[in-house]
Amino acid sequence: MAEQVRVLIADDEGTIRAALAALLELEADLDVIAQAANGREAVELARRHRPDVAVLDLEMPDLDGIAVVAELHRAAPGCVTVVLSGRGRPAHLREALEAGAQAFVAKGAPAGTLADVIRGAQRGERYVDPTLAAEALTAPANPLTERELEVLRLAALDLPTAVIARRTHLATGTVRNYVAAATAKLGAESKGQAVAIARAQGWIR
Question: How many alpha carbons fall within 13 Å on the CB side of residue 106?
């Protein structure tokens, strides 16, 4: 009998989570031992159950999939991670791999693909969605600095400049300068358009 691979699934959409679990349970060598509805719960369940592989939705409340990947490397180092996304961008792929993810899979992939990726990840093999990998080859480089990205992320929440300044420990004038610089670099006509461009490229979420 094949060795059992213990799997944790994390997705904030209950129907998707249940469907994934049901599909994986059809595989004789895969055992879904825990299901989480958000990123924080995924970390807690991984600490408690010590899965071999965690399958993580990219977009989740509390902690997103990439943040969970990074956290699990500290909290459950024996657990390898697979990021699952319906709207992944090349920037998301780069972030996930840099955080330590073993694989990046599209939600629209054939049912058997995820099972094979999980087995491969547990053996130390990498997998990247082929379409996303091809897009990554031609995707534009992110021209924004970390500070510009940080300020733009907060601006995307419609926070007042004074609040962004407090959160980033910057002067209000400096915050405006960062927003203006990001807007110019992205060829945008407004802060809102700059946010939209950065989101479309996956540079901010």
Answer: 12
Roughly how many angstroms between the first and final C-alpha of the chain, as a whole number?
Answer: 43
CB-side neighbour CA atoms (13 Å) of 41? 13
Tens of pLDDT along 54-63? 999 998 988 8
Instruction: Round to whole Å and give the CA distance between 57 and 63.
Output: 10
Cβ neighbors of 89 (< 8 A, separation 6 or more) are 132, 135, 139, 200, 201, 202
Question: What are 180's strand-pairing partners?
Answer: none
**Any idea how long the chain is?**
205
Residue range 170-175: mean pLDDT, rounded: 92
Contacts of 129 (CB under 8 A, 6+ apart): 88, 93, 104, 105, 106, 109
Domains of the chain by start residue, with CATH: 5-136 (3.40.50.2300), 146-200 (1.10.10.10)
Q: What are the C-alpha distances in Å from 96 to residues 64, 70, 93, 158? A: 11, 9, 5, 26
Closest CA relative to residue 178, chosen from 140, 146, 141: 146
- Which positions ≥6 away from 25 have C-beta within 8 Å? 31, 32
Which conformational region is residue 62 in: left (phi greater than 0), alpha (psi within -120 to 50 degrees), or beta? left
- pTM for this one? 0.72
